[in-house]
Each structure stands twice: as C-alpha cells, then as structure tokens.
C-alpha cells in the first residue's frame, strides 16, 4: 500500500508545498524564504530554501540560475555544518549536470551526495543520490551497470511504501525494457507506475508514465490514436505544473509517434518545437534526440542524402563526446533505416 506522494526536496518552512505545486509557486516561495533566512542569519534555513529554488529553476529550464542556487545552498549548508543539507545540494547539482549533458560531473556530484547522505544518517537523500547515479547510467545506455541498482531502489521504495520513488524506479526499469525490445514487460511496468502515481496524487510521475505507455503502444501496436491521446493528457499535467523539461520530452515523443505513423510534415513541426525547447534549457540529451528525429523526418521528406549523412555524422561525434551511448546507437541505426552510407 502506497501513501500520498511527497517532495522531500521541499524542506523546512517549505515542507508544506505539495509535489504538485507549480514550479513558479515553488520558486516564489523559495526565494522569499531564502531572503528571510538570510536576514535572520540562519544558514541552515538558507540551504533548505536554496534547494527548492535550485530545483524549481532546474525544472523550469533556467540552467544558470539553478547552477548558482545549488552552489549557494551548498555553501550555506557547509557553514551550518549540516551534512544532510550539503548532500541535498550536491544531489541537485548532480541532477543539473546530467540534464546539461555533463555526465562525468553528474557521477562525481551524485557519488559525493550518496556518501554524505549515508554519513549524515539521512536515508532519503542517500536514496535520491543513488537513484541519480542509476539514472545517469541509464541515460548513457549502460544498462548492465545500473539494472541491479534500479531494482534494489525499487525494492526499498516498495518496502517503505514510498509512491514517488517507486514510480521513478518502475519507469526507469520499464524504459530499459522498452529500449531492449521487451515491450510487454515495459508496458506492464509503465501502467503500474501510472496507477501508483495516480493513487499517490503525483502528477509529474503520472505524466512521465503516460508518455512511456504512449511510446510502447505506438511502437508495439501501431496505435497512433491512443498514443496521441495519452500524450495530450500528459501534456496537460506538465502545463499545470510548468514542467518545462517533461513537456519538451512529451513533444519529442509526439514527434516519434507521428514519424512512425508516416505523418512526416506534422512530425517535423513537433520535433522543431521540441528542439527549440531543449536548447532553451541546455538539455543536451533531449536536444540530440530531437535533432535525430528531425533529421530522419527531413530525410523522409526528400532532403539530400548527403546533407542527412553529414548531420548524422556530426551527431555521432557529439554524442561520443558527451557519452550518451544509447542515443549514439540510435544514430548508427538511422543510417540503415534511411539507407544512407555512414
């Protein structure tokens, strides 16, 4: 039995905020609380408020502001001698690094966060940091290295009855199954995640799960209508919370669904929109995926094969540098799909 989802990154005076609070609301409340804590000379409360500010900026796609906020929160936590708060700040910084494509930095910061979380006796931040490490490995495509950690964290979340973390782990494992062709298993896990998120009133988790279901029913069943309806439902949840990153990934997935259905003109428009959104927030993985979808779509619409080959080659080089192995494999597969020589 799972309880209602909660947001442990909203701490101190901000702990009354809901997991579904709009990010603009979180940002306003966090900045107000941080200014008050600075006036009161309370570095511990500055750190707690700074965490909420950093996470709100990150999820809104305000990369530079998020970077300043997590670092300021870490300094305040260190001044207060609060190792758990230091760990939370490092978790936020590591998550931002992954979003920006700085995967080595993400591994380093999240590893430090996990160690500090364990040393401080805060199992929640330790769990979130380990989850961050698992997710970083997953987005790189290193499934063999992180599958066991995903499953361990899923078991721990189930045992605690923690809805939000259970949903995260289910979605991560489901994504790996989907990417390796185990569509039935992936769909069952995405559907379980959606139901737990719905019962726990976790709109963010529900939106991601709906996106996963849409992907599977599109690629496995060719059910374009259902996939698009699911994505429309998920988009409404993203907009209610101002989830910029999740919304951009939703649009990218809509492009995928339209591309698979042969609706290339529509797909081109949606991929272009997603690409602009990813670039605005410095999301390199999303930008690469949107560029790949757009390149394939343009090829289907009659683009010169030499231009497509040149773009795919540039994407290959970029992805090799970033370390996104799974996306790199997708680019290699695109040559064969489009019958273009590397």
Description:
Keywords: Repeat, TPR repeat. This is Tetratricopeptide repeat protein. Pfam families: TPR_12 (PF13424), TPR_2 (PF07719). InterPro entries: TPR-like_helical_dom_sf, TPR_2, TPR_rpt. The chain has helices at residues 23-40, 43-60, 63-80, 83-100, 103-120, 123-140, 143-160, 163-179, 183-199, 203-221, 224-241, 244-260, 264-280, 284-300, 305-322, 325-338. With 342 residues, the protein is mostly helical. Among the domains are: 8-109, Serine Threonine Protein Phosphatase 5, Tetratricopeptide repeat (Alpha Horseshoe), CATH 1.25.40; 141-237, Tetratricopeptide repeat domain (Serine Threonine Protein Phosphatase 5, Tetratricopeptide repeat), CATH 1.25.40. Helix 10 packs parallel to helix 12 (244-260), helix 11 (224-241) runs antiparallel to helix 12 and helix 15 packs antiparallel against helix 16 (325-338). The radius of gyration is 20 Å and the shape is globular. The mean pLDDT is 93.
């Amino acid at each position: 039995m799972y309880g209602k989802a909660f947001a442990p990154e909203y701490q101190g005076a901000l702990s009354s905020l809901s997991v579904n609070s709009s990010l603009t609301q979180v940002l306003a409340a966090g900045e107000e609380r941080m200014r008050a804590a600075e006036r009161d000379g309370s570095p511990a409360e500055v750190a707690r408020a700074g965490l909420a500010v950093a996470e709100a900026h990150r999820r809104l796609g305000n990369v530079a502001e998020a970077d300043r906020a997590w670092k300021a929160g870490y300094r305040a936590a260190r001044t207060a001698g609060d190792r758990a708060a230091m760990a939370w700040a490092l978790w936020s910084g590591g998550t931002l690094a992954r979003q920006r494509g700085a995967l080595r930095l993400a591994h380093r910061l999240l590893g430090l966060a996990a160690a500090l979380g364990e040393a401080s006796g805060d199992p929640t931040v330790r769990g979130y940091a380990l989850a961050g490490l698992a997710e970083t490995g997953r987005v790189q495509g290193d499934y063999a290295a992180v599958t066991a950690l995903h499953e361990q964290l899923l078991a721990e979340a189930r045992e605690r009855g923690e809805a939000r973390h259970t949903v995260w782990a289910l979605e991560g494992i489901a994504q790996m199954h989907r990417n390796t062709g185990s569509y039935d298993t992936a769909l069952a896990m995405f559907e379980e995640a959606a139901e737990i998120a719905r019962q726990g009133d976790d709109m963010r988790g529900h939106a991601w799960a709906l996106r996963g279901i849409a992907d599977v029913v599109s690629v496995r069943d060719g059910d374009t209508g259902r996939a698009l309806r699911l994505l429309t439902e998920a988009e409404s949840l993203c907009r209610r919370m101002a989830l910029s990153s999740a919304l951009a990934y939703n649009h990218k997935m809509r492009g995928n669904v339209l591309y698979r259905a042969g609706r290339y003109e529509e797909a081109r428009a949606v991929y272009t929109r997603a690409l602009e959104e990813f670039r605005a927030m410095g999301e390199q993985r999303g930008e690469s995926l949107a560029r790949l979808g757009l390149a394939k779509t343009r090829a289907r619409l009659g683009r010169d094969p030499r231009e497509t080959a040149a773009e795919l080659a540039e994407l290959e080089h970029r992805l090799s540098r970033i370390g996104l192995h799974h996306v790199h494999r997708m680019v290699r597969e695109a040559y064969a799909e489009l019958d273009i020589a590397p």
